[in-house]
Design brief:
The protein contains six helices and 21 strands. The chain is an alpha+beta fold. Strand 18 and strand 19 form a beta hairpin.
Length: 299
């Protein structure tokens, strides 16, 4: 959250809130899909799309461990258990929320549930695209906004809302170390959203929770950002910074309110082609849905 714009950013956000919605044998050879246009993601043509170098993709006991050197994504997936029912449900929810152009033009999808209750409330699910598949990489607890009006560090009342919608990351605002003056909070591994609201570049970001806030992960506890544990924020930051830089679609822009639209509308040029700009091939989708509570539905 930038010092000079934090307060006006959140005031604008208040206005926006009132207005908007060990694989032992080699796997069978498969044809490699084309890489996401404009990215620097490498593909292993000998087997399948290569995993991001050094990044965890192999599931072990419900988590992911680092892929052995030289292993492809197909190697890891072939030796891993099938996605859980929860992962499959989240993936379907995500797919149902994406347009074909979104699926085509992004390589990493970050689904965040800002819901207060439900089986996947206050969790982040990270999916990597490989061909037509969305491969689950991570399932992490998060903290989103407290969804109240509160006084900031200097006593000004501001909303602590995490707005639902679709967001890209700002390639100019990726910081391993950052501190919010407005809320007087540390924000390690901050990845700010590329979202301008009523003419102001907002201070919403994904970042690591401070030590005293780490114990609150899994519940609404932030001033509006999406918090992760320090280790998980570092993992996501490194994965994105090292593997997903490239050309990405431009989101729609409302010239009357000077706001980048977060409803998923993508801009096209006069020829009908998607307009592209430098950034990260990462789409963040924040959803106010916590999944079906099957136990509650039984009554």
């Amino acid at each position: 959250m930038f010092r000079g714009i934090e307060r006006s950013s959140w005031i604008a956000l208040a206005v926006w809130t009132a207005l908007t919605p060990a694989a032992s044998a080699s796997p069978a050879r498969v044809a490699p899909p084309a890489p996401v246009p404009g990215t620097n993601i490498a593909w292993n043509s000998a087997n399948s799309p290569a995993a991001p170098v050094g990044r965890p993709v192999q599931r072990v006991n419900g988590t992911f461990s680092s892929t052995p050197a030289g292993s492809s994504l197909a190697d890891s997936v072939a030796g891993a258990p099938a996605p859980s029912g929860l992962e499959q449900s989240v993936e379907q929810r995500l797919r149902d929320s994406l347009s074909p152009e979104m699926l085509q033009n992004f390589g990493l999808f970050v689904y965040v549930s800002k819901a207060e209750a439900g089986p996947w409330a206050q969790r982040m699910f990270v999916f990597q695209k490989a061909g037509d598949d969305l491969l689950p990489l991570y399932d992490w607890p998060v903290s989103t906004g407290r969804e109240t009006m509160e006084a900031d560090a200097v006593g000004i009342q501001l909303p602590t809302t995490t707005p639902s919608g679709y967001y890209e990351l700002d390639p100019k605002r990726m910081y391993e170390s950052y501190r919010s003056v407005q809320w007087n909070e540390s924000m390690p591994y901050a990845m700010f959203f590329n979202w301008k609201d009523h003419g102001v570049q907002t201070g919403l970001a994904i970042h690591a929770a401070s030590d005293d806030a780490a114990g609150l992960l899994g519940m609404r506890a932030s001033a509006g950002c999406v918090r992760l544990s320090l280790e998980n924020a570092r993992t996501l930051f490194t994965l994105i910074r090292d593997n997903y830089k490239g050309l990405v679609p431009k989101f729609g822009y409302d010239k009357y309110t000077a706001t980048i639209m977060n409803n998923g509308l993508i801009l096209h040029d006069a020829a009908g082609s998607v307009e592209l700009a430098p950034g990260y091939s990462v789409l963040v989708y924040i959803d106010d849905y916590g999944g079906q509570n099957l136990e509650a539905e039984a009554y």
